[in-house]
Amino acid sequence: MNASLLMTLPELVLAAGAIALMLVSAWGGQASTRLVSWAAVAVLIGAGIALNGPASTGGAAFGGLYRADAFAAFAKVLIYGASAIAIILAPRFFAIGRGDDLRPEYPVLILLSAAGMGMMVSAGDLLTLYVGLELQSLAAYVLASFMRRDARSAEAGLKYFVLGALASGILLYGITLIYGFSGSTLFSEIATAYGAGRSLGLTFGLVFVFAGLAFKMSAVPFHMWTPDVYEGAPTPVTAFFASAPKVAAIALAVRVAVEAMGSATDQWRQIVIFAALASIILGAVAAIGQTNVKRLLAYSSINNVGFVLIGLVAGTQEGIASVLFYLTVYLVMTLGSFIVVLQMKDAEGQPVETLASLAGLSRTRPALALAMATFMFSLAGIPPLLGFNAKLAVFSAVSHAGFYPLAVAGFVASVIGAYYYLRVVKVMYFDTPSQAYSGRATAVESVLVTLMALFVSPVGWLALGTLGVWTNTAAKALF
Amino acid sequence: MLSIMLAIPAIAAIACLFASAQGARWIALIATLVDLVLGIGLWANFDIGGPQWQFVENAGSLGVFSWKLGIDGFALMLVMLSVFLMPICIGASWVAITERVQEYMAAFLITEMLMIGTFTAQDMFLFYIFFEAGLIPMYLIIGIWGGANRIYASYKFFLYTLLGSVLMLVAMLWMVSFSGTSDIPTLLNTDFPVRVQPWLWLAFFASFAVKMPMWPFHTWLPDAHVQAPTAGSVILAGVLLKLGGYGFLRFSLPMFPEASAQFGWLILSLSAIAVIYTSLVALVQSDMKKLIAYSSVAHMAIVTIGLFAFNRQGLEGAMIVMLSHGLVSAALFLCVGVIYDRLHTREISRYGGLAINMPRYALLFMLFTMASVGLPGTSGFVGEFLSLAGTYRVSTLATLLCTTGIILGAAYMLYLYRRVVFGEIVHDDVRAMPDLSLREIALLAPIAAVVLWMGVYPESFLAPMRSDVATLQARIARAAPAGDSLPTAGKALATPVAHAEVRP
Fold this sequence. Notes:
The complex is a heterodimer of chains A (479) and B (504).
Chain A: H1 2-7, H2 9-28, H3 33-50, H4 54-57, E1 59-61, E2 66-68, H5 70-94, H6 105-122, H7 126-144, H8 151-182, H9 187-195, H10 200-216, H11 225-232, H12 235-260, H13 265-288, H14 293-314, H15 317-343, H16 361-364, H17 366-379, H18 386-400, H19 404-429, H20 443-456, H21 461-476
Antiparallel strand pairs in A: 1-2
Chain B: H1 2-18, H2 21-45, E1 54-62, E2 65-71, H3 73-92, H4 101-120, H5 124-133, H6 135-145, H7 150-179, H8 184-188, H9 197-211, H10 220-227, H11 230-240, H12 242-255, H13 257-262, H14 264-283, H15 288-307, H16 312-343, H17 354-357, H18 359-373, H19 379-392, H20 396-421, H21 428-431, H22 438-456, H23 459-476, H24 489-502
Antiparallel strand pairs in B: 1-2
C-alpha cells in the first residue's frame, strides 16, 4: 500500500495543494489571488518533481487500478506544463476592470483539473478512468463560465456541461457493456476478454467508449461543442482547454486502445481512421470561413487531433511515440498562438479577437508577428518548423504499418489546412495596420513566447534527439 | 565548407532584422558576395573525375533525418548558379525596395540558404525540408513586396506547390521503409520493385512537374512572376524553377529508371504541348513579365525532353539549358525591371524606341534576347542543341514539335524586342528615361559575360558534370527506350571499316 501511495505521489501533491489553496483563498478572499496563483504554479512544479522515482517507473499500483509508468509520466509533464502556463497567463487577461476579476478559485480549479487529468493518463481500470475524467471535466465546466457577467462565457459553460454530461453518459454506457461482457473493469482482464474472440456486446462497448473519448478530445463527429466553448470561454481558459485536457484525453484513448483493447485493434482501428480523416478534413474546411481567431484555433485543434489519431491508427510502438511527439509540438504551437491572441487588445485595453484585428501586426509588433507566423507555418506543417517533423513522425509511423492511402489522404488534407493558417500570416503581413495596440507583453509572456517560437523553429531540432528518446521510452511502457 | 555556405546567409538574415535599412542592404550584399567567393572556391577545389560525392559532411542524426551534405557535378553547377545570381538580386533591389528593407533582405538570404541546402542535401528528408521551406520566404516576398494582385498570386504559388510536394513525401516514406535508409547516395543504387516504381514516380512527378513547371501545371508561374518584385522574379526563374529539373535528375531518373522509361511518352507529349502552346501564348502577351514567364515554361520543356531522352547529349543538354535559362531569364527579368523602375509599367505598348535614348540598354537586352532565342555563340544554343539532339534519338516526332519552339521563340522574343526597343519614341515620358546606371550595368554585365562564356566554351561547365552524366547514364541504360531514329554513332563508324576490307 505504501508503495502504491508513492506511485500516486504527483496526484496526492496536486490534491493536497488544491485543498490547501482552496482554504487559503476562502480566508484570503480576492486579495489572495496573486499568492494562490503562484502557489498553484509551485504545486504543479512540485507534482512534476514528484514524477521522478516510483511515479514514473513503479508500474501497477493498487492492484492494477493505477499505472505509474513512463507513458503516464510523459503525458503528465505536458499536462502540468500547460496547466502552469494557463495559470500564469490569466492575471493580465482578467485585469480589464469589468467586475470579472480573476478570483483565487481559478488556479485551484486548474489544479483539481490537473489532478483529474493525471488520473486519466494513469488509469489502469475503467473506473479510475471515469473518476479522473469527471474530476477534470467538472473543474473545466466551471472554468469555461468563469466570467460570470459575460453572457458568452456562461453560455460556453452551460453548453460544455450539457454536452459533456451526455458524453460521460455514453462513456459510462460503454463501460457497463464492457464490464457486463468481460466481467471486469481492469484493463488487463478486459484485454483477455477481447482476445478470447469477437463478442457483440464487447464491440458495442468499444464503440461507446471511443465515442465518449472522442467527445473529450473533440474529434469529429463529436466536435460540435468545441468552437462555441473555445470562443465563449475566457482566453486563458481556452488556451488551457486546447492544451492540457486534449493531451489527457488522447493519452487516455491511447492507453485504452493499446492496453485494454490491444487484442481488438482491428475493431477500433476503423473508428480511429474515420475520426482521424474526418477531423482533419472538417477541421481544415470549416476553419476557412472563420473570422474569430479563437474559433479558428478551435478548428485548428480539431484538425490537429486528426493528425494525432493517425499516429494511433498505426497501433505500433513507433505510432504511440509519434503521438506523444506530436502532442508535445502541438502543445507548444497552440499555447504560443494563444499567448499571441492574449496580446490582442484595442486602444482601450479591451481584448479583441477578430482575425481582422491582427491586420498589420508585422508593422506594429514585428517580433510578436514573427512568433505568430512561426506558429502558423508550423501548424500548417511547413518545414523546417517542428510542426512538420511532428506530421512526418505520425505519417512515417502509419506508413510503416502499411496504411499508405491514409497517409496520402492525410497529407492532401493538410494542404487544405495550410490555407487558413496562411490566411493568418496574410492578415498580419500583407494587410495594412487597422488599429493601434495598447500595452506591451509582460516579461513572462515575452519569455514564454520567445522560448516557444524557438522550440518550433529549426533551433528545436537540437531537442529532437532527447525528445525521441523520451517518447520512445514512454511508448515502450505500453507494450 | 557547405555548412559554412549555409550558415553565412542564415546568420546574415538574422543580423538584417536588427539592422537599419541601409545596413541590411550592405549586410545582404556582403553575405551573398562571401557565399559567391566560397562557391568559386568550391568549384576551384572540385576534383573533376574524382569521387562522385565531394565535400561530404555528416553531422549525425536529427530524429528521422540526418544532417548530411555533399555535392556532385550537377549540384555544384546549380549551387554556382544560385550564389552567382544572389548578389545580383540584392543589387537589383537596392533602390527598388524602400519598404521593410530589413525583412526583404532577410527573406532573400533565407531563400539563398534554402536553395543551396536543397542542392547539397544528401538525406532525402533533409532535401525535402529545404525544398519545401523555400515556400515560406517566397510567399512573403510575393505577398509583401509584390504587385497589385499579389495576394492571389502568393496563395496560388504556395498551395499549388505544397500540394505537389506532399505526395512526394508519402513516396519518400515508402522508399525509406523499403530500403531502411534516407541516404540519397545509397538510394541512388537501390533497385525499387518495378511494380511499385510507377506509383513512386508519379508521386515525385506531382511535385517536380509543379515546380518545373510543366504544362498543364504551370498556371501558378505567370501569376507569381508578374506580381513578384524584380528580384523575386529573378530568383524564381533563375533558381527555383531549377528545383524541378534537379529533382527529376536526382530522384526520378536514377531511382526509378523503369518507370521513367514507361512514362517517357507522358513527359515527351506534355513537353511538346508546352513548347508550342506556351510559345503561342507568349506571342500574344502585352505584359513583358508574363511573356518571359511563358517563355520560361517553354524552355523548361526543353529541359524535360532532354532529361527523358536517356542519353548523354540529352542529359548534358538539359543541364546546360537549366543553367543557361537561369542566367538568361534572370537577365531578361532584370532588363524588364530596369525600365519598370523608370516608368512603373510593364505594358509593352507603353515603350518603344528605347534604342534611341538607351543604347547601352538596347545592346545588353539584344544579347539576352538572342541568348533566349538560342543564337549560336550564346549559352541558349548549346543547351537547346544538345537537348534536342539527344531527344532526336528517342523520338523524332517530339523533337520535330519541340524544335518549332525555337522558331516560335525567335518570333515572340524578336517581336518583343522590336516593340520595346526599335521604332520611334511615341511617349514623352519614355524619351526622358536615362540610360543604364553604373549599378545596373554592374548587374547585367557579369551575366552577359557568363552567357557568352557558356556559349563559346561550354566545356568549362560540362567537364565537372561529365562523370556524373556517365554514372547516371549507366544507371538508366537498362531501361533506355529503343528510339525511332535508327542511325547510331557506333554502327555508322563500324560499317565503312568493314567495307574497306571487303572491296579490294
